[in-house]
Design goal:
globular, 9 helices, 22% strand, 7-stranded mixed β-sheet
């Protein structure tokens, strides 16, 4: 293949991607999301190598993890995480934690509904969900652009706000979904100072982002 290095730098198979991630790599918006909505005890369902578990434990949360990838679970355990391998069902008791996190998971699962029912079974309070946003594709394509997550080879689902709401509504009595992590409105302008100004103006909502690359959802377990 001509350009194999270019291909490797763009297209990713996240089934094995996280083994190369340093243990301190987490998303700050995800951490803020947890701190705003989670209870004191948290299960990271789809924990990968345990980065969020380690970080949240340092913040005082009681944290456990679960994943289907044995190598991920092994690494998470080496980092001191109570990480468990998922075989047939998630190996946690009913209502055993306050909050279940499903961060960047639903897009990888062919049929997410059974996993959501498992998350509700385990959570006492709520389930916190993030997934890549796949809305506004036509507008992006008009500029010859696409979201980065379309390069992830193992994604099976592509959610908009409405389709995520439709997936969650039959499982949870109350659901709230919103778009977040707006793209810098000046991201394509030349010059780092201009792009920095774009980030600042976007955060201050002076120039609101035209596109958002992530969806956030809070799914309540109780009425």
């Amino acid at each position: 293949m001509i350009g194999r290095d270019i291909h490797a730098g763009v297209f990713r198979d996240t089934r094995n991607l996280y083994t190369a991630y340093p243990p301190d790599v987490v998303s700050r918006p995800h951490i803020r999301f947890v701190r705003k909505y989670a209870g004191a005890s948290v299960l990271d369902l789809g924990c990968a190598t345990g980065n969020y578990c380690v970080h949240l434990a340092a913040l005082g949360y009681t944290v456990a993890g679960a994943d289907i990838n044995p190598e991920y679970v092994r690494i998470a355990r080496e980092r001191g995480v109570d990480a468990r391998l998922i075989v047939d069902r998630v190996p946690f008791d009913d209502a055993s934690v306050d909050t279940v996190m499903l961060f960047e998971v639903l897009e990888h699962v062919e049929d997410p509904a059974p996993l959501l029912r498992e998350a509700r079974r385990i959570a006492r309070k709520n389930v916190l969900i993030t997934t890549p946003h796949s809305g506004d594709i036509v507008r992006l394509q008009q500029q010859n652009l696409l979201y980065e997550h379309f390069a992830d080879l193992d994604h099976r689902n592509f959610f908009t706000r409405s389709t995520l709401e439709e997936l969650l509504a039959p499982v949870f009595p109350r659901v709230r979904v919103w778009k977040g992590d707006g793209l810098n409105p000046l991201a394509l302008c030349p010059g780092a100072p201009v792009r920095f100004v774009g980030r600042v103006l976007g955060r201050l909502h002076i120039i609101p982002p035209a596109f958002y690359f992530r969806l956030y959802a809070v799914a309540e377990v109780n009425q």
